[in-house]
Amino acid sequence: xxxxxxxxxxxxxxxxxxxxxxxxxxxxxxxxxxxxxxxxxxxxxxxxxxxxxxxxxxxxxxxxxxxxxxxxxxxxxxxxxxxxxxxxxxxxxxxxxxxxxxxxxxxxxxxxxxxxxxxxxxxxxxxxxxxxxxxxxxxxxxxxxxxxxxxxxxxxxxxxxxxxxxxxxxxxxxxxxxxxxxxxxxxxxxxxxxxxxxxxxxxxxxxxxxxxxxxxxxxxxxxxxxxxxxxxxxxxxxxxxxxxxxxxxxxxxxxxxxxxxxxxxxxxxxxxxxxxxxxxxxxxxxxxxxxxxxxxxxxxxxxxxxxxxxxxxxxxxxxxxxxxxxxxxxxxxxxxxxxxxxxxxxxxxxxxxxxxxxxxxxxxxxxxxxxxxxxxxxxxxxxxxxxxxxxxxxxxxxxxxxxxxxxxxxxxxxxxxxxxxxxxxxxxxxxxxxxxxxxxxxxxxxxxxxxxxxxxxxxxxxxxxxxxxxxxxxxxxxxxxxxxxxxxxxxxxxxxxxxxxxxxxxxxxxxxxxxxxxxxxxxxxxxxxxxxxxx
Length: 535
Fold this sequence. Notes:
Blueprint: E1 2-5, E2 8-11, H1 15-26, E3 31-34, H2 64-80, H3 85-88, H4 107-124, E4 127-130, E5 133-141, E6 144-152, E7 158-162, E8 165-168, H5 175-179, E9 183-184, H6 190-193, E10 214-218, H7 231-235, E11 250-252, E12 259-261, H8 288-291, E13 293-295, E14 309-312, H9 330-350, E15 364-366, H10 368-371, E16 389-390, H11 398-401, H12 403-406, E17 417-421, E18 425-427, E19 437-439, E20 444-447, E21 459-461, H13 473-476, H14 479-499, H15 503-508, H16 510-522
Parallel strand pairs: 1-7, 2-3, 2-8, 3-4, 8-21
Antiparallel strand pairs: 5-6, 6-7, 9-16, 10-14, 10-15, 11-12, 13-14, 17-20, 18-19
């Protein structure tokens, strides 16, 4: 077996993993970065989820390196795409003019920008990327992880990666059980957390739905896929709280739980520059076509795009039949989620009600080339909303950021803040039969204590596996927060190596903490919010 070493091993190449690696590399450290899928970038790329971001993202509330990623995406479009002159001059260019975010774009562009950000460190030899590799084991000595054993996804052998620091940036916290790190899953009880929205008893297998996203456009011709084998099951599937079949335009409104009907109009002749993508004012999901649109054809010169391209991450693809973490039939559920998504596509093409009274949109074309998908044309990876979460020195609870609880006081200020974030507490329906939980939030901080395991000394979470609860994960799971978490974890590992100290000591010593926060601020990590009100 091959053994390699570096200052840090970052397992998982999603947004948190990339940010963690960049922070370590900027600090002069050597890094091994691993990723299971063909693209780096996680939810932004292989999972095909356009960014979900807060209302102030163009001005403040994200790290400098995350802003560089966003501006790099816009620059890539200006450099390489046939934009109209009007769109090219649009300072806050939104290539897809989607309503979910001020920057909706094709996943492959983010891949190109991420690769460019990492390229100098690959060239210098300080970064080694193992791809596609996944963790299958670990060597642990007491409270320390000595090494991680990695297996090539396609049967290309194993590698053991050794480092003083190991960062778990996987989508599901895969290193936590492999290293014996204490963690929780699913719903904590109200007795454990004191959260207003928590149940009376803990429900460790009750987790948010996973979704397998896909991209479509709408062009002339018949592009109907083969009828999925489980189509009849999904065609008749109706959760108790849904108000109709899952495969319909009707579903609960996340914020009110009122049953509402959404519209679907492919290729509306709208002006991209007039789209107001601000979830504080409007969730933007009334017309599902424009909700997560990633290419608005009117942003490009005539004839460049025959159609808009939209990303299907809609309520009807949420898979509720079972969790995919710490269960023996996880692979069956992941396969079921993919079958659901293909069934949704087939329903859209053949049976979905049209505004003109007809049914089906046979001109909808699956764009697997846009998502880099495999034989089924869907996204490479499932969108995992909820991970295993470490038992941390501090666990962020609903009452720390809920607008209903905090009111005009704003979210709790943490003395050990290592970043900021903002998103509503947005929980999708769960495998335990729960409806949406959608709670207004105050702009919040990220406490260092949530990144430090109670016991392990050199393993750090760098993704959605930090010390949040099932409920607060709904606010901390989005793109800019995951990036900030990863960046803080990478910077913490580098700081500890530079100062021959430990994460526990940094959190517990005022001088070390101040020095670490100074380094974060120097590198463009915002630690506090200005006076803004949540939503």
